[in-house]
Amino acid sequence: xxxxxxLVIDDSALIRxxxxxxxxxxxxxxxxxxxxxxLVAREMIxxxxxxxxxxxxxxxxxxxxxxxxxxMRLRPMPVVMVSTLTECGSETTFRALELGAxxxxxxxxxxxxxxxxxxxxEIASKIRIASTARIRRLEPGAAASGRALQxxxxxxxxxxxxxxxxxxxxxxxxxxxVLIHFPPDCPGILIAQHMPxxxxxxxxxxxxxxxxxRVTESEGGERVLPGHAYIAPGHSHLLLKKSGxxxxxxxxxxxxxxxxxxxxxxxxxxAAQCAGKNAVGVILTGMGKDGAVGMLAxxxxxxYNLAQDEASCVxxxxxxxxxxxxxxxxxxxxxxxxSHILAKLTGTxxxxxxx
Length: 355
What we know:
Number of domains: 2
Order of helices and strands: EHEHEHEHEHHEHEHEEEEHEHEHEHE
CATH superfamily of the largest domain: Methylesterase CheB, C-terminal domain
Structural class: alpha/beta
Shape: elongated
Number of strands: 15
Radius of gyration: 20 Å
Strand order of the largest sheet: 8-9-7-6-12-13-14-15
Distance between the termini: 35 Å
């Protein structure tokens, strides 16, 4: 079996050595080169043709984000960011993901050798996922903006309706690409995105700046309001509950489900129990099977469910699993997802790929 070939780009000789040790200890991958800066890396990419890059941000001669932008325009390939600047929900993280990086690992600031060794399985897992990801060329002038869809005046949406979204790898950009099209009077939205603690608040703040709806990290106990989206914090499961006539959020630090907390399955199961046919479920790009069982429960409870199609996914794992168990009603390209959601909620007709 061919090993995943990795090029490590970092200005620290120690980090290059430690990453090489971590990667080479895996049976299915190997480091084929290490570069101290992007200019050296550029030549090594041409000669070695690696499957995946690990990339630091803060480097001499050209910073990692500038290099990433050039790379994704000229020679798109899988990139995992490994940098201290990606810690604590830094805007740098989301800029890297926006430019096309598949995922990120926060480099420890203290005791680097021990810290990186502790992150070894995470680094290896994200390199594996990156090696299978669908990569797209970054188009010049690509901007994080979109035209808001309008709910037709003669169509009203019940305040009992909800939109429930789950995603993993590639999901930060996919969620943005859906939410930016929602009008301020859309139904309340609950979101579970696989993301570490410390990043979800910055993710919510970024979406809040970009979208016409209000986006916040859930604190638990909020009343779910139209025109608002609530993102599961990185330390807790997010659940939907009912309090009288109102929907409210609830947080739980119960054990991870499918190795994740927050888990998409936990959110979807709660929506099945509390919202039933009033929910529209959406499963977006991501590795693994989290969300499939919960979405099937939503389907059995009367919800209408949509999955992102393979062509527009960074990783098709989670949507594929939901489709395979019969949990979905439509498979939709990402660029059409918002319009199909609102079409279902308003009862208007959209052409769709049906299951």
